[in-house]
Design goal:
Blueprint lengths: L1 H28 L17 H20 L4 H32 L15 H19 L3 H26 L2
Helix pairs in contact: 1-2, 3-4, 3-5, 4-5
Length: 167
């Protein structure tokens, strides 16, 4: 049974390396990730994206060594920050699209969020409340939100990029 679990874990790691390396390269080619992520080896392997992914893997192993009983919750909290940020960006971009449509700067689309803009603001309020609740989950949630101060630079960069490109 152990060999089956180990094989499944290694297979998952391998597919993660393959996918994230290619996705990071594609994002870099489109201007949505740092340009160095687009670098390829002579064998057409996106080594920069793979190395960045390996760094994240090593951080996970290091966390597992330091705090084995809490590492899952730490990783889960950081993943939650990414998901919350993604949904917040989607809602903000949807609100900006609706504003641009009203001003005649963009063509109308067939989907209209029911109850908008009230539901858009309600969604953003809900996402903010999830962050507040995470902050009360001591120690992991509190530390994750505190560490989000570093994470905010990435999110801030993304907001500036979104504003400049009118996402």
């Amino acid at each position: 049974m152990n060999i089956v679990v180990l094989t499944a874990a290694l297979s998952s790691l391998n597919s993660g390396l393959y996918c994230t390396g290619r996705i990071l390269r594609s994002m870099a080619m489109g201007g949505s990730a740092p340009s160095f992520m687009a670098k390829m080896s002579r064998q057409h392997v996106p080594y920069a994206g793979i190395l960045a992914t390996l760094v994240v893997y090593v951080v996970g192993v290091f966390l597992n060594y330091l705090v084995p009983s809490r590492v899952f919750e730490i990783v889960l909290n950081f993943a939650s920050l990414g998901i919350i940020a993604s949904w917040a960006f989607i809602i903000v971009c949807q609100m900006r699209l609706r504003k641009a449509i009203k001003e005649g700067k963009a063509a109308d689309v067939s989907f209209k969020l029911p109850g908008a803009p009230f539901t858009s603001w309600l969604t953003l309020l809900f996402l903010l409340s999830v962050l507040v609740l995470m902050a009360f989950d001591y120690p992991n949630g509190t530390y994750t939100i505190a560490a989000a101060a570093d994470y905010r630079y990435s999110a801030g960069y993304r907001l500036v990029w979104c504003a400049q490109t009118r996402c």
